[in-house]
Design brief:
mainly alpha
């Protein structure tokens, strides 16, 4: 967990997800909805979590595609699972 907010999410995630790197930050400096880790967390929750639910950012950036879900799967399981 240490270092999680020290770098932006991988550039490939930005590209696949269609995020503008100038509008998203590695942390909460641009607000909750513009934190790349929160977008990734919402993507994970809506596509893969057993606690799946509505994507809370879908009105701003849309729901994640299958390609996004496949990329997140390629990152491996979170340490807490």
């Amino acid at each position: 967990m240490i270092g999680w907010f020290e770098e932006k999410a991988p550039w490939l995630y930005y590209r696949i997800r269609g995020l503008d790197p100038n509008k998203y930050a590695k942390d909460y400096s641009m607000g909750w909805g513009n934190c790349d880790k929160e977008v990734l967390a919402e993507d994970f929750k809506s596509r893969m979590s057993p606690y799946n639910g509505e994507h809370r950012m879908k009105n701003e950036i849309g729901n994640p595609t299958t390609e996004v879900a496949d990329y997140i799967k390629s990152l491996g399981k979170p340490y807490w699972l």
